[in-house]
Design goal:
The structure holds 2 protein chains of 2 kinds.
Chain A lengths: L1 E5 L3 H11 L4 E5 L2 H13 L6 E5 L7 H14 L9 E6 L4 H9 L4 E4 L4 H10 L10
Parallel strand pairs in A: 1-2, 1-3, 3-4, 4-5
Helix pairs in contact in A: 2-3
Chain B lengths: L6 H4 L8 H17 L7 H9 L6 H14 L1 H6 L9 H25 L2 H24 L5 H21 L1 H11 L8 H8 L3 H11 L3 H5 L17 H14 L9 H4 L4 H4 L2 H10 L17
Helix pairs in contact in B: 2-3, 2-6, 3-6, 4-6, 6-8, 7-8, 7-16, 8-9, 8-11, 8-13, 9-10
Classes of the chains: A alpha/beta, B mainly alpha.
């Protein structure tokens, strides 16, 4: 399983990447532009991400803009919903409008910080992801 | 022996599940998880926001209005001019998911199923959904909306067996028509290669209800989950067991099951269910229709 963590805060990025390591190979991006480049590269190499975790507020491009680009690339490739990359929008705000925008734009789940291990693993299990090893 | 198909192949009876439906159902669950514990954000406003698009479709709107009329009539009298998505505040997140998913799936099957057996199935499904709501309301960590889904999705799944393999379905019906059982999953395995519960599980995931909920349909007994007796999964599975017990209009005496459930769950249940069984118009919202169906 291939995972992308896009988060501009270095500590949060590291924590999240470590939490996700049992699920597969984790790449990291430190802003929206890097995230878009990583996603484009993955699609060109036909090694699409299974899961992307996007911080809502990032320099250059927000998590919503990255998500929009991802969905546009998938639409261009004719990817069906069941095969599309799962997107978690991660944010420190529980703003109503932002939530509605994220979930109606194709984010599979909207997660508020702090992202705790139990909460994250429950969400991933519900979305059909299981850790590759029991160490979790 | 009929044709052997995988559970996912029976989902083709429904045609493509519209992205707007699965996204909306998942968004409702997400909103419920984030905003149902109080706080500054009003869950009902979020619910109206995430369902606005789906309830713009006239048929979905008609279903919603009919569901509120049937399940929460006093509220509709108070707010006759309310925009459709705002009506979701009376149903709440889980009932909204149930109404949206079950009505959509029923409509799709109505287009492809032989009307006679489908009519018999839907007659029982309408009662079961109402019973599921009553049972779910009494069960901690389940609630009426999830009770409706747990009761309704198995019927819809049986409908997909009918739509996909009509010949095998008549053999199936004949085999247990005279028995007290509502379904015969062993016979389903022989005839279709799957049980309707496996199809229900696949269907639940397809409409966005998530892995935790969908695995409830797979064969497990609450007794096997002793260490998880406070978990959501335990309660959902226990609810499925209750539904099986009350699934047949000739359900057994309450006394024989009372020991297995908390008194608050069982008390007065037989009377409530009797009322549902006597009501010929129960769950009519399932078949409400608008000018067209936008999907």
């Amino acid at each position: 399983m291939r995972i992308l963590v896009a988060e501009d805060d270095a500590v949060s990025q590291k924590v999240l990447a470590k939490l996700l390591l049992p699920f597969g190979k984790v790449d990291c991006a430190s802003d929206g532009q890097e995230a878009i480049e990583a996603i484009r590269r993955a699609h060109q190499q036909k090694q699409r991400y299974d899961l992307v975790c996007l911080d809502l507020m990032m320099p250059h491009h927000s998590g919503l803009e990255v998500l929009q680009t991802l969905r546009e690339i998938e639409a261009g490739e004719g990817v069906e919903e069941s095969a599309e990359t799962c997107a978690l929008m991660i944010t420190s705000t529980d703003d109503k409008e932002m939530f509605i925008k994220a979930v109606t734009s194709g984010s599979q789940w909207y997660v508020t910080k702090p992202v705790e291990r139990v909460k994250l693993y429950e969400i991933l299990a519900d979305l059909g992801f299981e850790p590759n090893n029991s160490e979790g | 022996m009929g044709q052997i198909l995988a559970a996912s192949e029976f989902l083709q009876a429904f045609g493509p599940i519209p992205r707007v439906l699965s996204r909306t159902v998942r968004a409702i669950r997400n909103a419920e998880a984030l905003f149902s514990h109080g706080g500054a954000v009003d869950l009902h406003e979020v619910l109206a926001g995430v369902t606005e698009l789906v309830f713009r479709a006239p048929t979905n709107e008609a279903v919603l209005v009919a569901a509120v009329e049937e399940m929460h009539p006093m509220h509709l009298d108070d707010y006759p001019e309310m925009p459709a998505a705002q009506l979701t505040r009376f149903l709440g997140p889980a009932e909204t998911m149930a109404v949206l998913s079950l009505s959509f799936l029923t409509r799709r099957l109505s287009q492809v199923c032989d009307p006679e057996p489908w009519g018999i199935l839907t007659g029982r499904m309408r009662q079961q959904i109402a019973i599921g709501r009553i049972l779910g309301d009494r069960m901690p960590r389940v609630g009426g909306g999830r009770g409706m889904l747990l009761a309704g999705l198995p019927f819809v799944a049986v409908g997909s067996l009918l739509a996909t393999c009509p010949k095998e379905f008549s053999q199936y019906q004949a085999a247990f028509r005279s028995s007290k059982r509502l379904w015969d999953t062993a016979r389903e395995q022989e005839l279709f290669g799957v049980s309707h519960l496996e199809v229900a599980a696949a269907l639940a995931r397809e409409v966005g209800l998530g892995a935790t909920f969908s695995t409830t349909f797979l064969p497990r007994r609450s007794a096997e989950l002793g260490s998880e007796s406070e978990s959501e999964r335990f309660r959902l599975i226990q609810m499925c067991e209750l539904l099986q017990i009350f699934g047949d209009p000739r359900y057994p005496e309450c006394a024989c099951i009372a020991e297995r459930f908390e008194p608050a769950v069982i008390e007065g249940l037989a009377e409530n269910i009797e009322e549902v069984l006597k009501n010929p118009r129960v769950s009519e919202w399932l078949f409400a229709s608008g000018r067209d169906e936008v999907e």
